[in-house]
């Protein structure tokens, strides 16, 4: 790598060029001030970062020693709690307080709805997510298993279309009912003064709540009627010439739902960014989202398609005034955590914290914001922090970034991901540490489970992966996250979020299950695709989340005893069949993800599981699977020989599952490539990996693959 000197830093030439020719021009920040500020920030804060990571390891070492002394004994949660308090793992709680964040966009603070998460390195996905604010309900139904059966024939299937129209009419009856009659019987929608009227054969009806109609655009026989319910918008598209509209008595060609209110553009778990070139790609796409310039061309149906950011949407209110609604999802960016370092910037010849580089570069890109925040805010999601001290350090880091870039204090808003055990156990104090800029907390089952296993690694063998969702600690974790957000006044200030729906092809199941997220008091939840966002949006019409928050705010706080009880198998032996299934299931999951990450640089994709069900996977999946097998290996549930045998057999299976990919490199029969070796080491070295994270090994083997394959 070629380096250039900047304020005493050794900066990768391509990163310096990006900063000086693309990132900073058009801002008030000079390259000299940018690099001098960054150098001073690194000299002061990088040593603090090192100290915080050392404290993680010291606490874990004490927990390991305590656990080894009690292996096989009955777990005593009171004793465990007292021990955690003694070593400083559990922080003392201060006086009650409320979040103080100001200047928050309404998509974050005032409206509940779905949240997309996409790898920012993929421009097409980033644009799809940005444009997922408005989506066709008919399309989401027609092309998925949300409706029974499948479309017939290569063209439009009128019977399938009729199913979608009927489902949508039932949705409208529930969300925006007519005063008299059903949307399924409407023969015409029309303006009558300030009201929207529905004709139903020989009678007419307004809406049960006339205020749901807030605007329209009428042009001869076509119209767009805008409704609002629970803060979310619904557009009725009238077009009698449309293939669907011409078969509908009212000419209703589509029902457009406001879907993904927000989208997290990810620099972390869903990308494979291991060097300066990768980081420049990520930062460049984020910059394009901020200044509106991001485009992407691709082949579809034999034609070249160019995708750009969607424009805003204009309507006329009943009083004649103009309504302009954002055409794009509000964009957040996820930076990496405190752990990893990067050789893209060296200080005194040493790698520097990647999270600090993300902080400076992604916030600097937001200086160009012309399409995103209406309040002058920059929304950053910060993952993988352990406890209040680390959250406070993030607050300090972004304050320093604000100073370098000339931003007012707390212009950068932070989302704190509740995905590590020490954060969950101290969540209220974590919120206190960033109360001036907090806009987001959420739960993430997979990473959180990975840390749960690693923390209790020496205590005993853990339960199988399939049983984790019924473990008592998990329910306390999910409820406690909402409890902490409500207790600190986050409702009305930010998002309380829930995790990803991992099955992008199973929308019928999602419609049944994911309504549990708004019912839990969460005002957002992650979805894997724009289509899933549209279908999940119907849940926020069914449930008024802010009413749910009000109903839940006085309940008893989730049990800390349950939260601190690890998922250890006590007095139970697994059958040989359970062990074999657990081995193969986890090995296949690890290999299916790692082979794309290491060989192809794909950080997030739909990976077939052991039963050939496509699951949307990122690094969090890898963490839980590798930690379970590392734990079983440590406690003699499996042997190293069994692990290697399962990996080799599952590699053959994964090779077959990827047989249709011309860019795929098979792992069998040699089992010597970097992808297979990475998967092997993630298990065999899982006990010693920091907090059970997969990044150190993945990065090393991805770099090896880039050298071997030239990509």
**Biggest sheet record:** 8 strands, parallel, barrel
Tell me the span between the first and last alpha carbons. Answer: 15 Å
CATH class of the domain at 576-709: Mainly Alpha
What CATH architecture of the domain at 576-709 do you see?
Answer: Up-down Bundle
List the helices and strands and how they pair.
Blueprint: E1 3-6, E2 9-12, H1 13-23, H2 31-69, H3 77-87, H4 106-109, E3 115-119, H5 123-130, E4 134-136, H6 137-142, H7 158-175, E5 188-192, E6 195-200, E7 203-205, E8 213-219, E9 222-229, E10 232-238, E11 252-258, E12 262-266, H8 276-291, E13 296-300, E14 303-307, E15 313-316, E16 322-325, E17 330-334, E18 341-347, E19 350-353, H9 354-365, E20 378-382, H10 387-405, E21 412-418, H11 421-425, H12 427-433, E22 438-443, H13 445-455, H14 472-487, E23 495-498, H15 507-513, H16 516-519, E24 524-527, H17 530-542, H18 545-552, H19 560-563, H20 576-600, E25 605-608, E26 614-617, H21 619-634, H22 640-657, H23 674-684, H24 695-709
Parallel strand pairs: 3-12, 3-24, 12-17, 17-20, 20-21, 21-22, 22-23, 23-24
Antiparallel strand pairs: 1-2, 2-18, 4-11, 5-6, 6-7, 8-9, 9-10, 10-11, 13-14, 15-16, 18-19, 25-26
Describe the structure.
The chain is of the alpha/beta class. It has a domain at 576-709: Malate synthase, domain III (Malate Synthase G, Chain: A, Domain 4). 43% of the residues lie in helices and 19% in strands. The protein contains 24 helices and 26 strands. The strands form 7 sheets. The protein has an 8-stranded parallel beta barrel with strand order 3-12-17-20-21-22-23-24, surrounded by 6 helices. Strands 4-11-10-9-8 form a 5-stranded antiparallel beta sheet. A 4-stranded antiparallel beta sheet has the order 1-2-18-19. Strand 20 (378-382), helix 10 (387-405) and strand 21 (412-418) form a beta-alpha-beta unit. Helix 2 packs antiparallel against helix 10 (387-405), helix 13 (445-455) runs parallel beside helix 21 and helix 22 runs antiparallel to helix 23. The protein starts with a strand and ends with a helix. The mean pLDDT is 97. One of its GO terms (biological process) is glyoxylate catabolic process. Residues 156-215 form the Malate synthase G alpha-beta insertion domain. Pfam families: MS_C, MS_N, MS_TIM-barrel, MSG_insertion. The active site is at 334 (proton acceptor), 618 (proton donor). Residues 16-70 form the Malate synthase N-terminal domain.
């Amino acid at each position: 790598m070629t380096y250039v000197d900047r304020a005493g830093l050794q900066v990768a030439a391509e990163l310096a060029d990006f900063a000086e020719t693309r990132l900073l021009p058009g801002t008030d920040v000079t390259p000299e001030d940018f690099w001098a500020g960054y150098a001073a920030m690194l000299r002061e804060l990088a040593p603090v970062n090192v100290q915080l990571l050392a404290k993680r390891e010291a606490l874990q070492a004490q927990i390991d020693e305590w656990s080894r002394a009690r292996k096989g004994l009955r777990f005593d949660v009171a004793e465990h709690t007292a021990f955690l308090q003694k070593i400083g793992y559990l922080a003392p709680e201060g006086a009650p307080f409320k979040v103080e964040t100001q200047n928050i966009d309404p998509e974050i603070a005032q409206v509940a709805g779905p949240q997309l998460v996409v790898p920012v390195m993929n421009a097409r996905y980033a644009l799809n997510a940005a444009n997922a604010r408005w989506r066709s309900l008919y399309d989401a139904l027609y092309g998925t298993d949300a409706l029974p059966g499948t479309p017939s024939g290569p063209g439009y299937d009128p019977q399938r279309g009729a199913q979608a129209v009927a489902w949508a009419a039932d949705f409208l009856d529930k969300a925006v009912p007519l005063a008299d009659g059903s949307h399924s019987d409407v023969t015409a929608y029309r303006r009558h003064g300030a009201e929207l009227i529905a004709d139903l054969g020989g009678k007419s009806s307004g809406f049960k709540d006339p205020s749901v109609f807030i605007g329209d655009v009428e042009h001869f026989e076509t119209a767009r009627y805008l409704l609002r319910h629970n803060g979310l918008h619904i557009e009725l598209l009238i077009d009698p010439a449309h293939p669907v509209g011409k078969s509908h008595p009212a000419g209703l060609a589509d029902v457009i739902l406001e879907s993904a209110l927000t989208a997290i553009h990810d620099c972390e778990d869903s990308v494979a960014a291991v060097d300066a070139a990768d980081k420049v790609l990520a930062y460049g796409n984020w910059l394009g989202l901020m200044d509106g310039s991001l485009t992407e061309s691709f082949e579809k149906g034999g034609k070249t398609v160019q995708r750009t950011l969607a424009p805003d949407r204009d309507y006329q209110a009943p009083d004649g005034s103009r309504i302009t609604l954002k055409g794009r999802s509000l964009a957040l960016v996820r930076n990496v955590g405190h752990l990893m370092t990067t050789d893209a910037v060296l200080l005194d010849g040493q790698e520097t914290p990647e999270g600090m580089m993300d902080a400076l570069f992604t916030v600097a890109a937001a200086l160009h914001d012309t399409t995103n925040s209406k309040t002058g805010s920059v929304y950053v999601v910060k993952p993988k922090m352990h406890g209040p001290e680390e959250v406070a350090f993030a607050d300090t880091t972004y304050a320093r970034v604000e100073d370098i870039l000339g931003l007012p204090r707390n212009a950068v808003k932070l989302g704190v991901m509740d995905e590590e055990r020490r954060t969950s156990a101290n969540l209220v104090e974590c919120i206190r540490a960033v109360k001036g800029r907090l806009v987001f907390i959420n739960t993430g089952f997979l990473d959180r489970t990975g840390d749960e296993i690693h923390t209790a690694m020496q205590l005993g063998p853990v339960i199988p992966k399939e049983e984790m969702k019924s473990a008592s600690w998990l329910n306390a974790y999910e409820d406690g996250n909402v409890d902490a957000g409500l207790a600190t006044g986050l409702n009305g200030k930010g998002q309380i979020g829930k995790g990803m729906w991992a099955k992008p092809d199973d929308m019928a199941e999602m419609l049944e299950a994911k309504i549990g997220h708004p019912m839990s008091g969460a005002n957002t939840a992650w979805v894997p695709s724009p289509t899933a966002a549209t279908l999940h949006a119907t849940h926020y019409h069914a449930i008024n989340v802010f009413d749910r928050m009000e109903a839940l705010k006085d309940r008893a706080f989730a049990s800390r005893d349950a939260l601190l009880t690890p998922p250890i198998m006590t007095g139970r032996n697994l059958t040989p069949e359970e062990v074999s299934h657990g081995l193969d299931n986890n090995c296949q999951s690890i290999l299916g993800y790692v082979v794309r990450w290491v060989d192809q640089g794909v950080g997030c994709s739909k990976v077939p599981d052991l039963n050939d069900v496509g699951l949307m996977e990122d690094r969090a999946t890898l963490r839980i699977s590798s930690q379970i097998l590392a734990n079983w290996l440590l406690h003699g549930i499996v042997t190293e020989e069994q692990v290697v045998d399962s990996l080799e057999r599952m590699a053959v299976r994964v090779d077959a599952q990827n047989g249709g990919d011309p860019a795929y490199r098979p792992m069998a029969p040699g089992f010597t490539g970097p992808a297979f070796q990475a998967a092997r080491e993630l298990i065999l070295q899982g006990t010693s990996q920091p907090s059970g994270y997969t990044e150190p090994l993945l990065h090393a083997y991805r770099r090896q693959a880039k050298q071997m394959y030239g990509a």
